Input
Amino acid sequence: MIIPIKIESSDSKEYNIHIENLQNIEFDTKVAIVTNTTVSKLHLDRALKSIKAPHIEVIEVPDGEEYKNIETVLTILDRLFKAKFDRKSTLVALGGGVIGDMTGFTASMYQRGVEFVQMPTTLLSQVDASVGGKTGVNNSYGKNLIGSFYQPKAVYIDPDFLKTLPAREFAAGVAEVVKMAVMFDIDFYNFLKEVDFSNRDDIVKVIAKSVKLKADVVNQDEKESGIRAVLNYGHTFGHVVENLTNYREFLHGEAVSIGIVMANELAVKLNLLTKEDAEDIKILLKKANLPITFKIENIEDFYEHFFLDKKSANGSIAFILPNGEIGSNIIKRDIPKDLVIDALNCFKA
Ligand SMILES: NC(=O)c1ccc[n+]([C@@H]2O[C@H](COP(=O)([O-])OP(=O)(O)OC[C@H]3O[C@@H](n4cnc5c(N)ncnc54)[C@H](O)[C@@H]3O)[C@@H](O)[C@H]2O)c1
Ligand SMILES: [Zn+2]
Output
């Protein structure tokens, strides 16, 4: 299955997202496969079998979000220079969102930009991170604060990569899928209630639908000046949960799951979601083995953390909420503090 991306901006970009088992992919340029030590053991051979290129360099970096930084990018750049890669070269990101974000960012800089291709291997990166062209790394001031918008030349999503993915990582990807369903598509939401994740066809349907929904948003708003912000549903709260637990206790998707439950509590208070629908979403998340509770020790401190997020840096917090029903969305700014505190109090330790 091929899903086309067509970004309507001044320098319009078009490319395809392929969802199928890896086929032969031919390059007429030198190729560097950027991957990590975990993924390379599991899937490098398969990637190498499908890639045909005049020269292939494999660049392995350590595994972990803590290595998603400028130092690792510098080592990748160094390897490219050593291997005499020129401006007509292609980087292939083989791994999860960490590898995808870092490789895309490196590609956007190397000799002012070389082509890159995404080969996402986690559910989260297949349904979310590999689509849309956000690239970047973390630094001591926060996550993804250094980066660029840089679209790949193509995305190759092979659902079979997921066979080796730990269950917890799989569930984390489901949180992003639920996010998209609740924001955009009630039919998809109802499908998720019945889905069988042990069935390959169901997984393919979930990936394809999520990619389509995200692609549709990105096509309209590449640089997040409007609707793309809706993809942050569950993230405004989730980022605070990640931050308060020092990024150790929860995977990103798990924090998003908790964030969705918190956002829904606020939506219920604003009459934007019925209690029944909020409960229904909770049940769906729980069924996917995602956490749905979090004990807030200090409500005021939790609230203050909203303002550390780069997306609320100008002082107003944008809350992304369902808009009256599952499948529709609204961006609410200037919700009175006491209402938010009211919602947060439902999670008081
Ligand atoms: N660019 C975007 O739009 C966007 C969107 C969402 C998230 N992100 C970024 O993505 C990152 C999270 O991505 P992630 O959840 O994929 O994390 P990840 O890349 O750290 O991968 C999770 C773990 O799974 C391992 N792994 C990957 N594929 C595997 C496989 N097939 N089998 C077994 N193990 C495998 C990895 O080595 C890692 O240990 C974050 O850095 C986040 O900021 C970016
Ligand atoms: Zn996310």
Q: What stands out?
A: The first strand starts at residue 2 and ends at 7. Residues 176, 235, 252, 256 surround zinc ion (ligand 2) (CB under 6 Å). The radius of gyration is 20 Å.
